[in-house]
Design goal:
Low-confidence stretches: 248-256, 649-654
Shape: elongated
CATH class of the largest domain: Alpha Beta
Number of domains: 5
Largest sheet: 9 strands, antiparallel
Number of helices: 40
Amino acid sequence: MLLTSLAIRRPIVIGMALIAILVLGLVAYSRLPAELNPRVPIPTITVITVYPGAGPAEVEDQVTRPIEEAVATASGIRNVYSSSQDSVSIVSIDFRVGINVDNALAAVRDRADTARASLPQGAQSPIVAKLDINAQPVVYAALTAAGSLEDLGSAVERDLKPRLARVPGVASVTVTGGKNREALVEVCAASLMQHGITVEDVLNAVRGSGTNVPAGSVSGGGSETAVRTMGAFRSLDDIAAAPILTFGSMAADLMPDLPIPGLPRRSAVPDPITVGDVANLSFQSQDEGTFSRLDGRPCIGVVVAKSPDANALAVADGVRRELEGAIGSILPDDSAVAVLRDESGVIRDALHDVNTTLVLGAILAVTVVLAFLRNFRGTVIVAVALPACFFATYMVIYFAGFTLNQMTLLALSLSVGILVDDSIVVLESITRHLGLGERPAEAAFNGRTEIGFAGIVLTLADVVVFLPIAFMGGIVGAFFREFGLTVAFATLFSLIVSFTVTPALASRWYRPGERLATHGTRFDGLYGRALSWALQRPGWTIGWGATALAAVFLVAAPNLGFEFLPASDQGQIAITVELPPGSSRAATDATARRIERQLAGMPDVRHAMTTVGEIVGGFGSIPQRGSQYAQINVRLNDRAGWTDRLSGSRRSARSRFRSRTDTEVAGAIRRSLRDISDARIVVAPVRTVANIGPALQIELSGHDLDAVAEAARTTRDAVADIPGVIEADTSLRPGQPELQAIVDRTRAAALGIPPSLAGSVVRTAMTGVEAGRIAAYGRDMPVRIRLQEADRQNADALDAIPIGLFRGRPVLLGDVARLELRSGPTAIERVNGMRLATVFAELAPGYALGNVSSEVERRLTRALPDGVAFRFGGESGVLEENLPHFVLAGALAVVLLYLVAAALFNSMLYPLVMMVTLPMALIGGLGALVIMGETLSLVSMIGVIMLIGLMGRNAILLIDYTNTLRARGLSRTDALREAGIARLRPILMTTLTTIFGMLPVALRIGRAAELRAPMAIVVIGGLVVSTLLTLVVVPVAYDMADRLRSKH
């Protein structure tokens, strides 16, 4: 009690320390970076390799497999996923949770660099990157203009992009949808035949002519002059003048002109041959494979990502200033900017809402204290604990490297009532001593001393249950780490405040003889009589309590669903469109436009951003590219919050805000698109903190592709029959029609044509290959070589492509290969070297993920053939992986609470008495979830763990004071009755302050409050039920346990 004695004798020291904490805490608060989510290292590394013109099968064999084999030797790998698509290989490596992600990134990068040497010519260098939950775009904007989109794109690339990149904290700026220009060299097949050359010869000519080459230096006359060979292209004429020198043209003069059956005789042509002799040259817009629209108008997308340590709010503000200032200065006057996503707005809304609930909770908690104490001075003494604890916690989380995010602020908002509990208990004890006639200083010291070691244990009861939360395993455990530690820090500071500030202020602010509210009220008498009746009838009391709890459990359990996280309204809906393989971009675009017209008539839709040619899934998912794909990202109007309803008029609220949830809007969109039958359309709200994929995702793997495919179709049909499942489908698609050139190896060998040469020539002719760069019109542009359109339209034209020379005569593709129309895969997916097929689905409103997943697992266990394994992915996979960590955290919390209580009571029996409060709290919390229409999720399970500590506090107060009174000579029954009456008011005060402190969170005040509310609902429901029962059942259980101990 030295600390309390010092605080009472030296109040100025305490006051100065309090002011220092407030000042330093305010400084720390102002410097804390603001982000939506905690900085959680995601142990996933992605390797992306582009191989232009290659099909999925070639990408798998020549790119994906070598990279898989190279990275598989890194330590700590759990799974290696891969997707081989047209022209791109994506390998995703999942490491064990807890591994150093930066070290894993370096290891994968080294191995990818090693694999680079074994990749085919034409494949680009692998791009290695790690996933970051906060590396999502800070700002995603779309720019439109009445004029040329190409001119707008040029201005964005040339002027706007560098300015955005210079904003402090910006890591990358990506421009999408723009039509970049290129110098296109379109080769005429007939001219190639005439001159006896191939498209590869043209490619080599351009590559060898368009560069400046340093050649050293010459010295003389006391000076040294650099020498360079100047060959860089400055105009199309420079490219056209590039000479084509081939081995075949030189060999034709040296070798006899021998006739070869089936091949035409080479024509004599004058030398030298130039690129302009065989090709048409022009500046054209590049075909990027995708294009975008905003609300029906062609647009250019600008995606800005921040660096990991940057402040998202500062970065977003800087980017928006640059975007707004660009209109009319570096961008055309008729251009417009629409911000589709601004992370700073989401962060500000989240932080504002959490701060609002925090302030309201504090006001309600202090009001409860005033209602009980009926003394303004006492209320202020308790209220001082809140800012002291808050600002002290800000200091600690600043030095701990935390950020201001919805987890740390949620921890503080849920802790409002808890933070005043210690001060309430101490002040209530001081009040009783004042009522006994003691002087304020004496009452302050004696009141605090009477609490004794129990005061420390009361705080530790909260701290020990949050420590397992802070150190849970898994990704979700890392996500909640800052939440658990923030609550623990704040609770420890509340203990220090109750030891120092509370008695110091009470000793100075109270007056001798001051009239204070006491506990001797009519309610105390009613409670005392009820407790006496219960102690006389322990069997009836325990029986009725158990019956009430069983009734609540039997009603709640069947109606309680289980899911990963509560559905949080993000105000965004993703619509994915997929036509049959082989569909043209024009057909896909026509379908997308039909959807856009439906969206245009919906009042809840603010913007619709359409991308044709690509589908991008959730966080960490593998994108799909192809002419049959399209995606429409819908930005909804904001939902009206309670402050919006209070501040805005009824008419303006209707025009600016929406009343329907994103799920309801998605359902309306889904119904409006039923008439579109020629495409698979999935409409789903953007969900969860990181949007980790479909709600239900089942991964089927095996070595036999046919068996995996059949299992996927069977699983899809089984899943679709489960009530509540919608949009069920598989990742398997019909083969994409493709024209395959089947090389006759014998014939090719006879004509001196390697099969690989045939492939590379055809790729150059059809897809085109970048052969160099040209500086023109103030820009650096690529030079691309390909056949002209007329020479690559059908199979006959392909047959006539020259691919090489034999004895001075051209060899055509048709001479060494036959063309067949076959079906090829649209994508090849693997996991750990095995074939992979995925079944995915969404859930209808009102259905819980856990219940559906259990039914899926039950059906698949019986239906899958041998050799095919399954596991859950997406939300269901994360839930399955992390649920054991939450169960373990709850069990550890119970064990730690028992250990702390045993140390206080110096008994192994009395802590067991305290544990009878836990089932009461659990069933009360579950019942509250059912009444409020919520589900049991990982968030509400955190609330259950919080309940363990809160209910332990109340039982500790009762049992510890009972033991104190018995040590003073009271009988067991009298001690239980007196302890119950004496501790009734502090128990009710601490319980009600906690309930009212959490009430704004439970009432979903603020936008996107769905994620926070279940935690508060569980705690409030558990406190209401268990507190009422604890006041009666714990004394009865104590009496029964003590009688049993006496008999033995």
